[in-house]
Amino acid sequence: MERESIAVGLDIGTTKIVAMIGKKNEYGKLEILGIGKSKSLGVARGVVNNITQTIQSIQQAIQEAESNSGYRINDVVVGIAGQHIRSIQHSDYISRTNPDEVIGDADIDLLINQVHKLAMLPGEEIIHVLPQEFKIDGQGEIKEPIGMYGGRLEASFHVVVGQASSIRNVGRCIKSSGLDLSGLTLEPLASADAVLSQEEKEAGVALIDIGGGTTDLAIFKDGIIRHTAVIPFGGNVITDDIKEGCSIIEKQAELLKVKFGSAWPGENKDNEIVSIPGLRGREPKEISLKNLSKIIHARVVEIVEQVFAEIKAYGHEDPRKKLIAGIVLTGGGAELKHIKQLVEYITGMDTRIGYPNEHLAGKSGEEISSPLYATAVGLVMNSLRNNTLSATPLVELQKPMYQQPPVVRYQQPVQPVVNAATAAKPVTPQPQAAVPQPEPVAVTAQEPVLETASATATATATRPMVENVMEESTEKKVKRSFFDKYIDKIKDFLDNAE
Questions:
Q1: Quick one: which H or E segment has residue 131?
Q2: For position 394, what pLDDT does the model report?
Q3: Which candidate, 140, 162, 141, 152, places its Cα nearest to that of 88?
Q4: Among candidate residues 16, 72, 70, 18, the one with its CA nearest the CA of residue 39
Q5: d(Cα 136, Cα 154) in Å, to the nearest integer?
Q6: What 8-state DSSP symbol labels residue 435?
Q7: Strand partners for 128
Q8: What is the dihedral of CA 117, 123, 124, 125, to 10 degrees?
Q9: Is 241 helix (H, G, I), strand (E, B) or coil?
Q10: CA 97, 101, 103, 108 torsion: positive or negative?
Q11: Residues 480-489: pLDDT tens digits?
Q12: Which pLDDT score, from 0 to 100, does residue 463 have?
């Protein structure tokens, strides 16, 4: 029987850490088996800045996912983001030694490995090498070169580069949490897998993932990744603005943003006011929702304009590079009211909110199909592609442990019972001793002292002298223990009298 592929994705975000366990069902859809979520404490703007706190948060999310799913997690695919991420376009080629043979996977791997050896800036490391288009002997616009003949194989690549120290820190956190790292994936690419359809990727689309610490961008055209960028602003910056502008604490600012926040100030009336309890007996604060919307609007406009600048840098205005499918918003920030309308207003492009429910099985909960979990769902899909067994059922782990102990448990009660009544039994042949055993077992459990005397009487008549000697010693022991108890009682009495 073919083993079932269980995948685990770990999204290490600025505000939350999500561990998700999933598998493919019989219809090819993703079935989520368990999800664990914890507050992210050691991450700022997508980069780990406190190893210890990050490890604790990861362990908490992993434990919750394990208890919800009944699986033990072995390894994870982790998402990576942060302002240190940048992307470059690069072209490379190889000359094949035998042009009479068809191009195979080995040739493409050789070309990709050659790109991996590119000289980067000091302290930088290549995360992804994504082939875009191939050329064979000068013939361009080839998407799938396998099976074709040619001497010179050329390709243009989208290379994603990140800071080596940041990547190592993430790896260190995973290892210290007792897990193996099975893969690193750029977060916007993971979100794109979960949220975008193949038609949108073909037509041309920009995915904007608004997270807590960063806003990630991935641009697709003709089904190929064309541009990626990470902008170091996210939902947390909006919360900080509300905190400063309304002079309230961060927790209250976050709640205000989620419950009453809007990116379009025109939607709120002037007389709409929300009251916030004061700190330690102070008077409650009254905040106008119109002012709140103005604060949010100013920051969201800045974030969207920066993203739009990246889209322009890709060359969106060029008719050949036009993004027909427009923009897809996802991530926690996409849940902000009226953000879709604001993005459409600023960019002039069609916009929709991206939910990861397209690839999810029907019985997945509403919570999981929220834009908040788009990256985690994408990471699980990425892990499934590698056909890994990232988690094992806890039932399977327990089976070997529970098969042996019953043997030990049944043997132990038999030995002390035999010792109490007939200490000399080991001397007699074992097969015979096994037959009369049940009688003394039942009796000694009820009246140990009386039965010891009667057992001695029968033993003297039927058994050899050796047993007599042993029985006498047991009688002496009984007497001695009786006197010991008596002396103890006298001692207690004297102590109390004093």
A1: strand 124-136
A2: 77
A3: 162
A4: 16
A5: 6
A6: S
A7: 160
A8: 60
A9: helix
A10: negative
A11: 555 676 677 7
A12: 43
State the DSSP string of 38-96.
Answer: EE--SEETTEE--HHHHHHHHHHHHHHHHHHHTEEE-EEEEEE-STT-EEEEEEEEEE-
What's the half-sphere exposure (Cβ side, CA atoms, 13 Å) at 4? 15
* Residue bearing tokens 């000068």: 138
Task: Give the tokens for residue 131.
Answer: 């082939």
In the chain, the amino acid numbered 107 is: D
Whole-number pLDDT of residue 19: 95
How much is the pLDDT for 323? 94
Q: For residue 164, what are its two tokens?
A: 């080596």
Tokens 């919307």 sit on residue: 293
Nearest to 81 by CA among 196, 203, 167: 167
With b meaning 16 or more CB within 10 Å and e meaning fewer, what string describes 10-19?
bbbbbbbbbb
Q: Which amino acid makes up residue 63?
A: Q
Cβ atoms 118, 111 nearer than 8 A: no
Q: What was the pLDDT predicted at 357?
A: 86
Token digits for 282?
């102070």
User: CA-based Rg of the chain, rounded to a whole angstrom?
Assistant: 36
Give the Cα separation of 292 and 127 in Å (integer).
Answer: 40
Distances (CA, A) of 430 to 280, 440, 476: 80, 16, 27
| pLDDT reported for residue 127 | 93
Spans in the chain with pLDDT lower than 50 = 1, 400-475, 478
What pLDDT sits at residue 435?
42
Integer Cα distance of 164 and 162 in angstroms: 6
